[in-house]
Amino acid sequence: MRTWKDMLKAADADILAWAAEQPWAEPMRRCGQDAEWHAEGDVWTHTGMVYNQVTRLEGYADLTRVEQVILLFVALLHDAGKPDTTVLDPETGRTRSPKHSMVGAAMAREILRALKCDLQTREHIVNLVRYHGRPPYLLEKQEPELEVVKLSCLLSNRLLYLFALADTRGRHTKEMSRPEDTLHLWRDTATELGCFTHMYPFANEQARFLFHRGELTSLHYTPHVDYRCTVTMMSALPGAGKDTWLARERPDLPVVSLDAVREDLDVEATDNQGTVIQAAREQCREHLRVHRDFAFNATSITAQLRKRWIDLFADYGARVEIIYLEPELSTILRQNKQRQKDVPETVIRRLSEKVEIPTLAEAHAVSWIVPG
């Protein structure tokens, strides 16, 4: 089995056997866990137990094969980040693995990319791995409903709930530290809010945008929609084809390009970017002040980088759409060499490890495009 399509055709037992031979499985076998939470032992032992519990879930047979394999891969990878994050707490003497879900999510993305998993399914699995530990702690949130609504924009609450059941059952604990009643509360809350199987039904895209920015006063509030203009924000690695896409799909839009600003100011990409950012922000303001649609063209590969610009656009009442391009890395490297000023391959490969795929939690609209 070498591709995602092969996984969809394979038997559950064969997928587990394949995983056991992968290089990322051995570190999991050598990684111990806290005995109070995982009396069963190492991470791989727990992984196998969770995997088997997934196949025994009530309703597993009613899932589509894609949904089944999604859950199986979440089981395989949900704790894959533990070997890199496990430490001994000097105060308690207990083993803990801080931020292992974030590391595991990054690993999942690379593993699934190598399997040529489609972008939509891949990112669904990545988000399930990233947030797999949330349901048991719902009652610890000050506003539990908001937690459920937020995640509905990133993943299926139904699959998250089902995986949480399997994760709870796939372990031996010295005390019942994860009562399933809390997991059922996640299901019931999501069902009541109408976001168990689908994204929460916001009144409009502006309501969703304001919600994720912490600016929506109530889930029942319908904000007035009166966009002053639309900003098309590009997000992709150097050489991915952002200029080409804009020329083909938005030929009439004026473009604020960080590369163009650097060229105008004679600033190298490796130099201090302060003057470049300042000049680009002023160009953006010129469009925003007169309510003119425009495109913002930069790599914008992390949520933090995007937010700085989206904050500016939102301050002027703009609608923000993000266009994320993800060609094959080999295509990006080839196209990069054809540029007048190519980026070193080592830089592109390093940047590719830092990419955070834009989500509907960031903008009014997000499009993921895989150029042919």
From TrEMBL:
Spans through the membrane: none
InterPro entries noted in UniProt: HD/PDEase_dom, HD_domain, HDIG_dom, P-loop_NTPase, tRNA_CCA-adding_enzyme
One annotated GO molecular function: nucleotide binding
Keyword annotations: Nucleotide-binding
The keyword Nucleotide-binding is assigned to this record: yes
Domain of life: Bacteria
CDD domains membership: HDc
Domain HD: 43-156
Record has Disulfide bond as a keyword: no
Name this protein carries in UniProt: HD domain-containing protein
Organism for this UniProt entry: Brevifollis gellanilyticus
